[in-house]
Amino acid sequence: MLTAILVAAPALSQEKSLNVVGAGGSLQTAQRYAYYAPFAEEFGVTVNEESYSGAMAKVEAMVRTNTVSYDVMQVEQDDVVTGCDEGLFEPLDWSEFGNPDDFVETATQADCGVGYFVWSMVFTYDRSKVENGPKTWAEFWDVETWPGRRGLRKTPKMTLELALMADGVAPDQVYQVLSTPEGQDRAFAKLDDIKEHIVWWTTGSQPIERLAAGDVAYSAAFNGRVSNANQEGKDFALEWAGQIYGMDFWAIVKGTPHLDLAKQFIAHAIKPEQQARFPEKILYGITNKQALESLPAETLTQLPTAADNLQSALPLSSDFWIDNQETLSKRFETWLSAS
């Protein structure tokens, strides 16, 4: 998808353009409202939007062939680290963006990224069709009590963690178990239990669309997408038990011809007034402490970082996935292709 935000500006400014890549759907709508449009208006810049599924192969090809067309990207927590190590993203100096003490700690710890929102993987179902639905991942896996197709993200990351929690592993023990060959076998065996019932998704909008269409009965989904659907009139459950939460980052693609403008965009996007606009459109957490303090109490309680929502939560381990992504991705692909 490619869209552009155009604003009237002096002739010199009209030559400025920036290509920003997000995850599409309601998330990108919120980013347009909070970040893209205000930046375009204030600085007289054309912001060209694209969306992607999170795969880094295209980015790597651009950088290796010196044909970079992406400037700023939304990237997941482990990808910002591995991408930095592999030379795909520009190293960033926090002195160009603000005081690190003004942000939640994880947001400032990546050498090539600036953390800007906290998301959560939860599960959902249509309460207009299911009166008493599952409340835990173990119950989500119970296709006899709650029949119907299940939506899961088509990646080992988060999917294997969900399988272990469904098999009775406590959230604070998941990565300890998953770090062993026996634990990995256990996760894949648990996925075997519902393999024939799974409908895989690759973009954040798909589980909501499929749930609305009746293509799945229950689905893992990002919390903000579920909340947005409910704001638009749906009655989708949002089950926080066993949520997996993580952070997404702004990163600048190595070799962009618009490096200074890309840095200017990020610095603007993490200001308190810009970040405070983001949850107005999608209920993800934000990283600027001043912005967090300005949010209404009713908004704070609906974020992944609310105390009640964290009681049985699992923080996504970037360290684990940096070490194990390649091996487990290969095994996951082999498992998918097996009958």
TrEMBL record:
Gene3D superfamilies xrefs: Periplasmic binding protein-like II
Keyword annotations: Plasmid, Signal
Entry-linked InterPro entries: SBP
Alphabetized CDD domains for the sequence: PBP2_polyamine_RpCGA009 (cd13589)
Pfam families: SBP_bac_8
PANTHER family given in the database record: ABC TRANSPORTER SUBSTRATE-BINDING PROTEIN, SPERMIDINE/PUTRESCINE-BINDING PERIPLASMIC PROTEIN
This protein's name: Spermidine/putrescine ABC transporter substrate-binding protein
Species annotation: Tritonibacter mobilis F1926
